[in-house]
Specification:
The protein is of the alpha/beta class and 584 residues long. It is built from 19 helices and 19 strands. Helix 8 crosses helix 11. The relative contact order is 0.10.
Length: 584
């Protein structure tokens, strides 16, 4: 990752049209350093601050210099969500650059999602030029005064791990290195830097040969005493329970959880899963609701779970031991989080579980018969739960399409290898997935508009795989569909979008009904401030960007329509959207 301070002379045109020689500029070094750190894509939503970046990309193309691939993305929320989608399927952080303060403002929703999802994004924004005259890159547009802020980074400071402003051109390489290092240090997350136009345009006069020497620290490793304590408690427990949201973030986490859960008869609940944590057919998969298992547990392991249960609705019994396992098991960036914690173990899920497994293998107090008996009972529970899954063959006789049956039909149509990106409506219990890296759910921050952008990013990083975005109608509108479908066509990213269209904001309706079930708002079914009717013809929007749209109103139309939509995406390599009118 070594980057020379001064590499070559390149030719540029001044504002006056005169030809002149420039040494490598800050923008040149900025892009080459991004590439040196493994950044593949540069998602750009540009403005008048971008000319040095545009020139640097053009120079790189002419000279054959390695830089990230630039992609124009006509909305900032979409750009950050695409970077999120690339990272979640590859583990490689990507770069986004937006236009000064107004562009930054449009990223906040997506940055909040990335922050709570521990997703590193290298976010950059232009800044009004420092100089008002006399320098290359100085202020030349009316907006350059009004767009300057005293603290542009303040808009994002609570959501990012680090923010900075580039002051000197020779700092460009160090800035990228520092941004990458902080973003990739566990717990990972987004970072932000502002880049004044006149600084980006400046030639580099000072060599910084060590600008590429920045390694990210390894994730925290669990302490041996903590591992022994956790192993003792597992050996002692009669009714242990694992609740997880993110153990399946990595292949290693998925595999280790599967092995340890089966070997020691540890039931697993994927509560509000953001990844596929355990295969649908795994004998220790006990679904997505803590319920009775939580109420009876004598040991709860919250494994990469920021919210393992909702205390206002349910809690483990008195005397139950509670263990939190995560890279930051206290979730120190959450202002208030009051779950009981008898033990906090810092480390990646795979590392902690592997260490516990090794400790249990030599544990003298392990009751093998109790584990075998518990395992047999849990297998029976898991089979009974699986038997309740809705089948795609069970076509509703009442003419209504519910989310469970729609989810089952999607699973049937897309197969086990598709990447499913779900922004709320898909019922994973009824769309059984078995392979790691095939399911991704919305961040705990709940910023709508993420799903379609994340799916496009996943498709960019996985061009040969079918990528499916399952969205509610509200989430689809928040996704800036015109911009999203333009990206799908312009960058050859055919994604299948399925809209669960119930013509309302389900979260608003459900929350209102939960708080005021006997109130006045309940008389209209909780639709106050949640009604999204009349519903647009969403299927027409994708057609404006060369895609194919389908509308489904009756159950008997659904399965064949989904098959046709999959064929459009996989065989014709065109984006497709299925607008399914649902009743839920």
């Amino acid at each position: 990752m070594h980057v020379e301070g001064v590499q070559s002379l390149v030719r540029n045109q001044s504002n006056a049209g005169e030809s002149r020689e420039f040494e490598q500029s800050a923008s040149d070094l900025f892009l080459t350093q991004l590439s040196a750190y493994g950044v593949d894509y540069f998602f750009a939503n540009g403005g008048t601050d971008f000319p040095p970046i545009a020139e640097a990309f053009a120079r790189a193309a002419e000279s054959g210099t390695a830089v990230p691939r630039p992609l124009v993305v006509p909305h900032e929320n979409l750009a950050v969500s695409m970077a999120h989608g690339v990272y979640m399927t590859t583990g490689r952080p990507q770069a986004v650059m937006v236009h000064v303060n107004v562009g930054t403002a449009n990223t906040v929703n997506a940055v909040l999602n990335a922050s709570r999802d521990e997703t590193p994004v290298l976010l950059f924004a232009g800044r009004s030029p420092y100089s008002e005259s006399g320098r290359h890159g100085t202020r030349t547009r009316y907006i350059h005064w009004a767009q300057e802020m005293f603290d542009q980074g303040g808009m994002l400071r609570e959501a990012v791990k680090w923010d900075y402003e580039l002051h000197l051109p020779e700092q460009a390489g160090d800035m990228v290195a520092r941004a990458w290092q902080v973003a990739m240090t566990a717990p990972r997350g987004p970072v932000y830097a502002t880049l004044p136009r006149d600084v980006l345009a400046d030639p580099i006069r000072v060599s910084r040969p060590d600008a590429g020497r920045r390694a990210a620290p390894a994730a925290p490793h669990p302490q041996p005493d903590d591992i022994r304590t956790l192993a003792d408690w597992i050996a002692d427990a009669e009714r242990p329970l694992i609740v997880t949201q993110g153990a399946g973030r990595t292949q290693a986490g998925f595999d280790t959880l599967a092995r340890v859960a089966e070997r020691f008869a540890l039931p697993v609940i994927s509560f509000h899963p953001r990844f596929l944590n355990i295969a649908a057919d795994h004998p220790m998969n006990l679904g997505s609701l803590p319920g009775g298992l939580l109420a009876q547990a004598d040991l709860v392991i919250a494994l990469d779970a920021d919210v393992p249960w909702i205390p206002a609705l349910e809690s483990p019994p008195a005397g139950c031991r509670v263990v939190h396992v995560a890279t930051d098991p206290a979730y120190t960036r959450y202002p208030m989080r009051s779950f009981p914690a008898d033990l906090c173990v810092a480390g990646e899920a795979a590392d902690v579980l592997s260490a516990v497994e090794a400790c249990l293998d030599r544990h003298e107090g392990l009751d093998r018969k109790r584990i075998a008996d518990r395992g047999a009972a849990l297998r029976a529970q898991s089979r009974a739960l699986a038997a309740k899954r809705v089948s795609a063959d069970a076509v509703p006789s009442d003419g209504r399409i519910g989310p469970e049956w729609l989810s089952a039909c999607i699973g049937e149509a897309v197969g086990p290898d598709a990447i499913v990106v779900n922004e709320y409506p898909l019922r994973l219990d009824h769309c059984p997935q078995t392979c790691s890296g095939t399911y991704f759910g919305l961040s705990a921050a709940g910023g709508l508009g993420w799903g379609l952008g994340a799916a496009l990013g996943a498709k960019l990083a996985n061009p040969d795989r079918l990528v499916v975005a399952t969205l509610g109608d509200g989430a689809y509108m928040f996704a800036n569909p015109t911009a999203s479908h333009w990206v799908g066509e312009a960058h050859d990213l055919p994604v299948l979008t399925v809209v669960f269209n119930n013509q309302l904001y389900g979260a608003v309706r459900n929350a209102t009904m939960a708080m005021y079930r006997t109130g006045v708002a309940a008389r209209s079914g909780g639709r106050m401030l949640a009604d999204l009717s009349p519903s647009p013809a969403f299927e027409k929007l994708v057609e404006a960007s060369g895609g194919v749209g389908f509308r489904v109103e009756r159950p008997e139309e659904l399965r064949d329509t989904l098959r046709r939509a999959v064929a459009v995406v996989t065989q014709e390599r065109r984006q497709a959207l299925v607008n399914v009118l649902c009743d839920y």
